Amino acid sequence: xxxxxxxxxxxxxxxxxxxxxxxxxxxxxxxxxxxxxxxxxxxxxxxxxxxxxxxxxxxxxxxxxxxxxxxxxxxxxxxxxxxxxxxxxxxxxxxxxxxxxxxxxxxxxxxxxxxxxxxxxxxxxxxxxxxxxxxxxxxxxxxxxxxxxxxxxxxxxxxxxxxxxxxxxxxxxxxxxxxxxxxxxxxxxxxxxxxxxxxxxxxxxxxxxxxxxxxxxxxxxxxxxxxxxxxxxxxxxxxxxxxxxxxxxxxxxxxxxxxxxxxxxxxxxxxxxxxxxxxxxxxxxxxxxxxxxxxxxxxxxxxxxxxxxxxxxxxxxxxxxxxxxxxxxxxxxxxxxxxxxxxxxxxxxxxxxxxxxxxxxxxxxxxxxxxxxxxxxxxxxxxxxxxxxxxxxxxxxxxxxxxxxxxxxxxxxxxxxxxxxxxxxxxxxxx
Length: 431
Known about the structure:
Helices cover 31% and strands 20% of the residues. It has 12 helices and 20 strands. A 10-stranded mixed sheet has the order 9-7-5-2-10-1-11-15-19-20, with helices on both faces.
């Protein structure tokens, strides 16, 4: 039985939460390997709604071990708030079923303030679309080797030295930006106020995972955002600050690449995006509004309305290749019910020439024009279908055409937010 990596195959918001929850029934361990609390997952279980932004989706399932890996940047105060919120909903959370990597980087108040200032001060053309939660600046400090990590809270005698190292960078930066100075005492107080609440969850999770792997435990690696937001392989600079492709499941959790088995990509039957950046198939018209309204396309974290457009097979095929995706979980097919005509982007033109990939150049990305193929829609409903036989014939044709264009099979078809409304073609854990 293969361990499974779940990644978003578009720009995020593809419905990963439901799929991870569905797969977690067969997993022993669920690991979140990158991102921060800017990645919202909405789970609907027995009509009860859980909104997660930081904790792995497996946390709502009794008997599962959830792990926040070292590739995550963690806001300790948000962590405490999210644990309290889920506990109030009846979810049992303790160090027995939740572990945090001892070497995880912490997000501090100064990161959030810097993030918000940069985004607010930028002109419209320069805005990235950040959630202003400090994720980017925290990753900057990690790479700059000045971050405060969870294990540092367990060593209070040397914590002041590490705060001084951090502020040696941030003090002149804040002064240059016109921000009020931050004192070492304030940072220390911020950390001391939360240390006792988070340290009990700390563990050497890389070792724990290797022991579990050798014992034959089934591990589910959960990514945040989507492959097109990868800092290397996405629509740079309109990306997140971490690697979102499947390969980072290894780096972000501390297991070797051989521990990764099946890679499942999650994609909507259409395309959405939040924030700035190129979006070749965006529909700034009544059709786009209809898709957004029917799909309830609003951010879990921010409430921002998502940009909507037709399915982009070019970008999906690119994500399949950069993440090594073995199969796709296709979500929200029901949103397209009732459309007489559905379009799929099968290529681009760039300065009059046909291209079959999204160029890396930011300027070129802004100039590509989609080439569409029209597919006949369907009248019957797909919502709630649990077998191929329950789907309209044209809906099946649409799915099969997507498989051809993206060069990957559909392993799962999700027909509603409810876990049970899933058509299984290939079980990543068992087949």
